[in-house]
Amino acid sequence: MTSTAGYTAGGFPRRTLGPGYRTAEVDEFIARIEATLSGNARPGRAITAADVQAVTFNVTRHGGYDELVMDEILDHYAHELDTRPTR
Length: 87
Fold this sequence. Notes:
The protein is mostly helical. It has one domain. It has 3 helices and 4 strands, in the order βββααβα. It has helices at 23-38, 49-54, 67-83; strands at 3-4, 7-8, 20-21, 59-60. A two-stranded antiparallel sheet has the order 1-2. Strands 3-4 form a two-stranded antiparallel ribbon. The radius of gyration is 13 Å and the shape is elongated. The mean pLDDT is 88.
């Protein structure tokens, strides 16, 4: 999987106290981004930079992904998608 900002999908920082993004939602979305970047996205499942900028996730009270860190990672992915060569 693609390493972004020193992380790999599923290895993002989690919150132990306080709210965080639901991990399953984030993991599924990140998998779609990585499939898009690698050229392996299924038809109709490719992600654009605009999709990344518009995405919202449900929040859990405890144990979700750290929201600030994930927002930075998603910004990085949006930049990668926006600047990648067209295939």
